[in-house]
Amino acid sequence: MFCVKKPQGGWRIVHAYSKLNDATIPAQAPILRKDVIIDSMAKSTIYSALDLRDRFYQILMRESDIPLTAVSTPSGMLWECVTHLLRSVRDFAPSYFDDVFVHSRAVNGKTDVEVPKEHLFKLLGLMRNHKLYANLKRCTFGASQIPILGCVVGKNGVRPDPEKVRVISEWPTLSNVKELRQFLGLATYLCKYVENYADKIRPLSQLLKKEAEWKWAAECQ
Prior knowledge:
This is Reverse transcriptase domain-containing protein. InterPro entries: DNA/RNA_pol_sf, Retrovirus_Pol_polyprotein, Rev_trsase/Diguanyl_cyclase, RT_dom. This protein folds into two domains: 2-159, 2-Layer Sandwich (Alpha-Beta Plaits), CATH 3.30.70.270; 161-206, no CATH class. It is 33% helix and 17% strand. It has helices at 18-22, 34-39, 66-69, 75-85, 114-129, 162-169, 177-189, 197-200, 202-206, and strands at residues 2-5, 11-14, 46-51, 95-96, 99-104, 140-143, 145-148, 151-154, 157-160. A four-stranded antiparallel sheet has the order 4-5-3-6. It is globular and about 60 Å long.
């Protein structure tokens, strides 16, 4: 067991549950693809984002199993639980693990202020009924755009998260294969926004080949 510091402060306890996981029946709920969630928000004008606090700790566990875990439940359990409980609002409030994204627009004679209020009322009512709690400090309500899964979604479309673009553009010169893999891991996450991405990173891909000699040339930079 060890602890990892959280970005917002506090500590997260980490356990090795390999044997317990092997004996656990995995959750069968499929995880929505990122592009499906983002595409469902097309043409919306007002957005909200809710972060479910404490993630797995909101899910009650069978009392006899508590001594076996003490800390958390598998991630699939959280996903299956949240998607099932919030299924009736999925059309305007898709969820991704412990994040719920609400997208609204004026429709049927109602304004883009009235519709978001109705959507949030329905969502928060469901959360109250099922005892799902949000972290208010990490929630956004009635915004013209919101960050979601590495992107920024708004009424004018989807664009890469400026913070991730900044990190990529300011990345220091790479000195070994390990650093290159780390860089490409982040860059590939935003590759859909880069024209001819595969051609642009070809010099870097060559350095990943098994027998390749590490030589950082101008074309790599």
